[in-house]
Amino acid sequence: ESDFLDVAGVYHGVHENSEAHVAGMDRMERFLSIWEEEGCNMISMSCKEHDEFAANSQFITHLMGRILGAQGLKATPIDTKGFKNVLKLVQTTNADSFDLFYGLYKFNRNSLEIIKDLKKAMDDVVGKLLE
Question: Exposed, middle or buried, 71 (CB in 10 Å: 0-12/13-18/19+)?
Answer without folding.
Answer: exposed
